[in-house]
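Shipment paperwork, digital attachment
Item: protein structure file
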Amino acid sequence: MPFKKTVIVTGASQGIGAGVVHAFLERGYNVVGTSRSATKSKELSPSDQLALVDGDIGHIETAEKVAELAIKKFRSIDAVVAKRRHLLSQTFHRVYGKRLSRAGRD
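Attachment content:
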């Protein structure tokens, strides 16, 4: 059985970010949601298809934690939805770029 695709969503704890998380979950994706207070979100609850990570995604440590969790729990990182575009060219590229090239090889 093929595994589901995995999406990382930043700013996931409320508003548009939480809405994006729900949209992907409803379509059968696995999601790793992150924000400074993701685990305290009133709009999201962790599940078999949703993992939440607290932290500032602008910090390399948080980005590494999110990427490692996605690979460990869901075995892939297929897309990243970032509310703050400039992070894609900085933190995400350094962390996720490495993992994306290795994802799916296990």
